[in-house]
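Allow me, if you will, to draw on your knowledge of protein folds for a short while. I have a record of one protein: its chain in single-letter code and its fold written as discrete structure tokens. The full record is reproduced below for your convenience:
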Amino acid sequence: MALKSIEREVIGCRACPRLVEWRERVARDKIARFADQNYWGRPVPGFGDAEAGMLVLGLAPAAHGGNRTGRIFTGDRSGDFLYASMHRVGIANQPTSEARGDGLALRGAYVTAVNRCAPPANKPTPEERDRCLPFLVREIEALERLRVIVALGAFAWDGALRALTSLGHVVRPKPRFGHAAEAEIGPYVLVGCFHPSQQNTFTGTLTMPMIDAVMTRAASLARE
């Protein structure tokens, strides 16, 4: 019930004027290949198993991915790479995530983002990050079996640390982001993973074996 309440509040949020204007303009103007589709055009809530021991954290919805489909990491290349890995590891029932209602279900995992609105150039401002961060804090609290947070990229790593600090879990010195880096923070383990953006996957910065190894490790930690 707590996650459902957070979801409703996320969807209705209009706290950041710049992001509201951008997400709605993208949804209205569209791009040619999606011209026949109705865009979501609102903040995108988290998605997954309410009994999750593992949380996968991204930066924000993509303008023509989550902002179009209404589900995080859905309808874009980053999501294709991520959910295919989660399927190979056994925490997603299918390897693709194309639209809300496509049958995708997660087992033991929950996927969300630091910011819930698609930002211009994929760059929320610090103020926009901080306005959105309480949603993540509340999700962490609501996931009572949560043990592991996988941060996809440095922005998500920093957002996770800020959220955990808000919950009273502080580590000094501040753990540094890196692929496969791990940090114990209170009752949680924070695990780093390069973001599955095309910039990383097309250049080989992040390969399928690399993300599978992180997902396998995180799933194992979540079961401990």
